[in-house]
Amino acid sequence: MELKTEVLVIGGGVTGAGVARDLVMRGIDTILVEKGDLAAGATGRCHGLLHSGGRYVIKDQESAVECIKENVILKRIASRTIEDTGGLFVSLPGDDESYADRFLAACDAAGIQTQVLSLSQALRLEPNLSREAKTVVKVPDGAVDPFALTIDNARDAARRGCRILRHTKLVGIDVEKGRVTGAEVHDRVTDERHHIRTKRIINATGAWAGHVAGLAGANVPLTLSKGSLLIFNRRINNTVINRLRPPGDGDIIVPNEPTSIIGTTSITVSDPENFTVTKKEVDLMMKEAGLVLPPSAEARVIRAYAGIRPLVAAQDADSGRDISRSFSILDHGKQDGVRGFYSIVGGKLTTYRLMAEKMVDVVAEEMGVHIPCSTASEPLFGSEDGEHYRLEDRFTSIETVEEGEEQEGKVEEIVCECELVTKDEVLKVINEMKTSNLNDIRQRTRVGMGSCQGGFCTYRLLGILHELDMVPQYEANEILTSFMEERWRGIRPVLWGDQLREEQLVEGIYLGIFALDKIQPLGKKASKSKK
Ligand SMILES: Cc1cc2nc3c(=O)[nH]c(=O)nc-3n(C[C@H](O)[C@H](O)[C@H](O)COP(=O)(O)OP(=O)(O)OC[C@H]3O[C@@H](n4cnc5c(N)ncnc54)[C@H](O)[C@@H]3O)c2cc1C
Predict the structure, then answer these.
(1) How many CA atoms lie within 13 A of 99 on its CB side?
(2) Following DSSP, what letter does each residue of 63-82 receive, concatenated?
(3) Across the chain, which distance is largest between two alpha carbons, in Å?
(4) Which residue from 9, 70, 189, 348 has its CB within 8 A of the most atoms of ligand 1, so it is best to mutate?
(5) pLDDT tens figures, 283-332
(6) Pocket of ligand 1, candidates 10, 21, 46: which has the most ligand atoms within 8 Å of its Cβ, to mutate?
(7) Mean pLDDT across the chain, nearest whole number?
(8) Residue 529 phi/psi, 5° resolution?
(9) Model-level pTM greater than 0.90?
């Protein structure tokens, strides 16, 4: 198939989705290709902190100012995806107390509102906080759902005419006489190749940006930094907790839906796809969490995961933490003699909109398009009502049963008990997206993201898809097997205590009752021979 577009965006993380939305809002015809699901890269593996900028304020004022400005904008335009939790910076005995003074002065200079709290005020906000806390400063941090933010940008772009090709990998870039003329993409579902005629390509592939640039004979010098995180089975804190000290490992805990997430680490790696969370990282984060939120020592960790930060390489930086978390736009026409090819790398989830604006400004100017950016004022599709997301609203809306409803059989069937996801919600996504992809359903409903990590609801989900004739039996077995393998990667580093016990129960269900390790080949054979 031959397609044609004015601009081709590569990568369906939050940056690519934001760039695509900005392009179509300026009337520029756009196609976005993503090799996997939306938010399959760093976006879906990040901490979910809507930075106030406090984290960077002493070492990197530029990043801090970007963060606070975008924090305010996103709370307005993407309100559905943000829980306005607020955040605390907390120092403990042994921390350098002079840091607090410098922090307050720097926040002031960057425009970040702060309030110093007494210990009793802080404990009223955050009852699980350590009684040892010395200085506690309140800042406007928040918690953001990276999946929802990316999906809402993509949905908004699509309804304005952007064509979004998921599971479609860029495999080649045509360059003629020093100018981009097209691209070759591979549809991984149908196994077909398509050619896209275009004069402009934006490389928004994060940790893969160097590889993609190489396809055009261009260069993106990156340092890849792995950051690992742990998810607790319950919400230990209601506000974002940061340590009031120079940024280090395991010093931020973000409330995320009914869980809390601690992170991160920063370890240089060479491969954006092959990495693991080590025992050393797990031990370090458990220790740090216990110091600032003592009840976390008793809480169960349900999953470890990691994401890769693509940091624009700096010659004089010793570690990933020393490289600026601001972003870079590379015009490969000027840099490598490949006109029409651009890369946008680095930055943060919090600053994705600004990154997209600056990237599209460059491309629009080259195209002679003079329509200004309007993404800072126009709410995303789904956030037009301006209501902030609140966890308790989601839960009470499901848990509230009106008198008589139970007898009338009107109570909704729950598919996922941990996240209280109903069968109706699941069916809505399946019908609207015409999808049988578990990730599509997971990202849009949170099914399987709670404390059992899909152990009890994934087979129910496949049962629903099977009933709808969307997934044949042998395929269901295959999906279940690969789901269990992926789940195991996340659970293996945190197997102790109750989590180990629960895992043995899940293993009993899948191997003992379902005999998943044995039935798959038989299922495939039986199903094929029926045809
Ligand atoms: C551990 C960690 C924690 C973080 N925590 C926070 C936080 O709390 N707050 C915050 O503001 N920021 C945070 N960040 C930063 C934030 O996650 C990133 O800045 C942001 O998600 C980057 O988005 P992106 O779209 O640029 O890259 P990605 O999300 O990595 O997207 C790139 C996409 O390109 C796709 N792709 C690659 N190659 C191809 C190809 N050949 N063809 C088609 N598609 C391709 C990939 O599949 C991927 O989906 C964190 C990052 C990490 C790693």
Answers:
(1) 24
(2) HHHHHHHHHHHHHHHTGGGE
(3) 74
(4) 348
(5) 999 999 999 999 999 899 999 999 999 988 654 444 455 555 589 999 99
(6) 46
(7) 91
(8) -70, -25
(9) yes
